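Model: Ready when you are.
Researcher: Fold this.
Model:
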Amino acid sequence: MNKSYKNFPEIMKDIFRKIGYTGHYIHRSLTTTLDKTRNVVITLVTSGTHEHWTGFSVAIMHKQNGTIVQQFFPFQDYLQSTQDNGQKYSPYVWRSSALNQDQLHWFGFAPTEDSIFEMTDAIDNYLSDWK
C-alpha cells in the first residue's frame, strides 16, 4: 500500500474492496445499502488540520429520517507506526502542495494488509450490530 492515489474514491476502493463493500463512491464517501430502509455512509474525515484526513466516520442513515447513529474510527487506533527514533505518531492521509497536488498519500508509512483488515473488520463488526 506504499503508493499515492489520484482521488478519494480510489483510496476508499483500495481499502473497502478487501472486505467486499461495494456501492457508490462519491468524493470522500462510500454509500452502500444496509437494508430496505437504511444506508451506510463511510466518509474519510479530517480532525481539523487542512488536507489531513485522520479516520473514517461511519453513519447509519434512515432513508427518510436521516442519521440514526454515527461512529468515528481513527486511523491511529489501527494503523500505528513507529519512526526511526522509536516514537509513535498518528497516521493520516494527506495532500501536500510540495508534492503533486493531484495525489493523496499516506503520511510517512505504508499500512500493511493486516492493519487495514483490522480497521475494516472493526467497521464491519460495528455495522453487523445494526443488521
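Researcher: Now this one.
Model:
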Amino acid sequence: MTYDIHWHDAQQTMLYVTYPSGWSWDDFYKIEAQVKDLLSENATDGRVDIIADIQAGFVPKGSIANHARSLDNELHPRIGLVVILYQSRIAKALSEMTLRIVPLKNVYRLANTLAEAERVIHADRTSEADIPS
C-alpha cells in the first residue's frame, strides 16, 4: 500500500494525508501512528490541522463507528481539525451518518475539494482567533 503524508504548508500547521485505493483499517492505524510521530517530532508548538484525502479509495469493511471512536479517543492533543476529503456520495453519506450517530469530539469536517478543506480550516482558525483568552 502506498500512502503519502506531508506538510501542506511551510509553517507546518497542516498535514495532508493521502489514503490510496484499497486501504484497510490496519493501514489506517499505521498511518495514524506515523501522523502522531510527526506531530510529536515537530518542533513547532500549537495547532495542526489534518486533511485526510480518501478520494482514491473507499472506507474499508468493518464498523466505521468503532474505528472512529478509537481514533477519537487517541487524538493527538495538537490536532485542531480533521477534514475528510471524499469523492463518492456513498462515502460522504457514511461519514455524515457516523458524525451524527457516534459521539465524537467536534474536530471532524467533510469537504469535497482541497480548496473547500482549506476554507474550512481557515474559517475555524479565524473563529478560534476571535475568541478572547
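Researcher: Key takeaway?
Model: The chain is about 40% helix and 20% strand.
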